[in-house]
Design brief:
Elements lengths: L10 H15 L4 E2 L1 H12 L7 H13 L3 E6 L10 E6 L1 H15 L16
Helix pairs in contact: 1-2, 1-4
Amino acid sequence: MARRKPGTLLPIETEILEAALAMQRTQQATFHGFGLAQTMREQRGSRSLTGHGTLYKALGRLEGFGLLTSTWEDAPATEGRPRRRLYALTQQGAEAAERARAARAAPSAPSPVPRLAPEPA
């Protein structure tokens, strides 16, 4: 398997960022992995999520790149569920999502692999 070039995003990572940006625009600034997966399936019929392990590994990579942040959310004792990770898109993540969306929307342009940051001039 070929390794990715430094500074590039995988298609699932781009899809996650675009879904997170859409959620942010609807006043949902934070999200859980499960809710994000549902949004991705509803918006784009995502087939890239073969299992939740795929999603959570990608979320971890995006957090490592500084495109997402996360905190632990403790469940109220009355709910009896385990605590969950609560994710939020960073400014850098929103910018990467916008670049990916613009590249995908450009007519007749090849679909480039999105970069984490603009290349220096």
